[in-house]
């Protein structure tokens, strides 16, 4: 297991982050996973033994039950709280009232106290805004998070599922007013869904944000267990919950290329898909979820794969983003200039 800094901070996190969306199984979340405390204890202990020190959850997962199970699993592991970098998120609906959601100061303050109680801890290492609130002013959100850091409830802050311009606006406000900056971005990224390379990657590299990748297997679609006609394992996540949206033709072109590499190496297609993401220079940590220890072990083994330059070139070509304006114009106008300083 390798470790990387949490964005531009000095905190070290494992390149694999254990996601706990499969813990609990309550309400809508039964489609994702229904792991009870006993199974969750086994998975958390196995991940920690493998060198994972980074665990991510959210207040909405299984209506709060995931946080409860996650906190208890960490305690049951016997590890010191300081051995685990614990991340959670706030934004989604946690009640029926109009203020029981979003990124307002009110909901953030209510949310952090509820999460601390469920997790059974007195601080959260990384507190993230789980989505874009188009109602709340960005400055209100940034100031509320800064207050949590100053009060000691939260040590670092991050954001998830925001557009590049909104993140940059938040960073600008933080810099101008001396407030805590976002340290991380949690975003969807796979070999079959490279959209964030257009605007978000240049931003996180320039501003030194750490990228946490969610759904690196596109909800299991890139596991190699699905066919082009949509057939997959009975009871699998993609059958029950067809998300995130994917261009299936491109996805299965990627799967075909990865399968050739996987068969030559004697490993699963999923390992190659995870290894490709781990090879990207701007990725800090990849979030993996598991329904059993066998699946966890297979995903963890992706850290041992070193793709060759030829394999990377093959996978990059089959998964390349289609050209889009203004990207193609920027490239056209800067090729000669860029070559003169290379």
Distinctive features:
single chain, 342 residues, alpha/beta, TIM Barrel, eight-stranded parallel barrel, 12 helices, 42% helix, globular
Please give a structural write-up:
- By secondary structure, this protein is an alpha/beta fold.
- The protein has one domain: NADP-dependent oxidoreductase domain (TIM Barrel, Alpha-Beta Barrel), CATH 3.20.20.
- Helices cover 42% and strands 15% of the residues.
- The protein has 12 helices and 10 strands.
- It has helices at residues 37-49, 65-76, 105-119, 138-151, 164-177, 200-207, 237-240, 248-265, 269-278, 293-300, 309-319, 327-341; strands at 3-5, 12-14, 16-19, 54-56, 85-90, 124-129, 154-160, 182-188, 210-214, 283-288.
- The strands form 2 sheets. The chain has an 8-stranded parallel beta barrel, surrounded by 5 helices.
- Helix 1 packs parallel to helix 10.
- The mean pLDDT is 95.
**CATH fold group:** TIM Barrel
- Derived from helix and strand composition plus strand pairing, the structural class reads alpha/beta
What's the number of helices?
12
Spans of at least 5 consecutive residues whose pLDDT stays below 50 are none
- Run of helices and strands: EEEHEHEHEHEHEHEHHHEHHH
**CATH classification class:** Alpha Beta
Radius of gyration: 20 Å
- CATH architecture group name: Alpha-Beta Barrel
What percent of residues are in strands? 5-15%
Return the average pLDDT rounded to an integer: 95
Number of domains: 1
Shape assignment: globular
As laid out across the biggest beta sheet, the strand order is 3-4-5-6-7-8-9-10
Largest sheet: 8 strands, parallel, barrel
